[in-house]
Amino acid sequence: MTTEKAVLSPKFSAGPHGLGDPEDRSLRKVEIEVLIPKLMREKAKTEKCTEQVRAFEKCCKESSLLMVVTCRKQNAAMKDCLTNWYRNDEFRNICTEEYLKKRSEYRQTGIKNPIKRA
Fold first, then answer.
1. Can you give the pLDDT at residue 12?
2. What is the C-alpha to C-alpha distance for residues 95 and 92, in angstroms, rounded to an integer?
3. Based on the number of CB atoms within 10 Å of its own CB, is 49 exposed (0-12), middle (13-18) or buried (19 or more)?
4. Residue 26 class from Cβ within 10 Å (0-12 exposed, 13-18 middle, 19+ buried)?
5. Nearest to 53 by CA among 25, 82, 30
6. Comparing C-alpha atoms, which of 2, 14, 16 is closest to residue 108?
7. How confident is the model at residue 2 (pLDDT cuts 50, 70, 90)?
8. What is the span of the domain harbouring residue 59?
9. Does residue 74 belong to any structural domain of this protein?
10. Which of 23, 45, 76, 105 is most buried, most CB within 10 Å of its CB?
């Protein structure tokens, strides 16, 4: 009886589609440092700081080439709002849970969620 060796650990190659255990809640370094912060930025821009983002975008469209100088106030307000949400531990936990739910769903079904672009 021989055992087959795999490149990935069973933690990442188990599950119904060989994509990892859907119930696994451990996070890799790239998920903690890249993927979850990316989700946090997207959610903060689209759900939490919409007013500031809209004001900055409007200013940029109206100012064209002078936007760097003209839109400093709006840019600062947008950055402050995004930074406040980015540092919020409760918001980070919500985004982490959302990420884990999406990852589990992917591991169960094998179907990736399409990337939503505005």
1. 56
2. 5
3. buried
4. exposed
5. 82
6. 16
7. very low
8. 28-107
9. yes
10. 45
In a domain, 11, yes or no: no
Residue 23 and residue 53: Cα distance in Å, rounded?
36
Distance, in Å, from the CA atom of 77 to the CA atom of 55, rounded to the nearest integer, reads 9
User: Domains in the chain: how many in total?
Assistant: 1
Work out the number of other CB atoms within 10 angstroms of the CB of residue 95.
Answer: 23
pLDDT in tens, 33-64: 999 999 999 999 999 999 999 999 999 999 88
Decide: 61 and 5 in contact? Cβ < 8 Å: no
In a domain, 18, yes or no: no
Q: What is the pLDDT of residues 57-110, one digit of tens each?
A: 999 999 888 888 899 999 999 999 999 999 999 999 999 999 999 988 888 887
Please indicate, yes or no, if residue 4 is contained in any of the structural domains.
no
Q: What is the pTM of this model?
A: 0.74
CA–CA separation, 13 and 6 (whole Å): 8
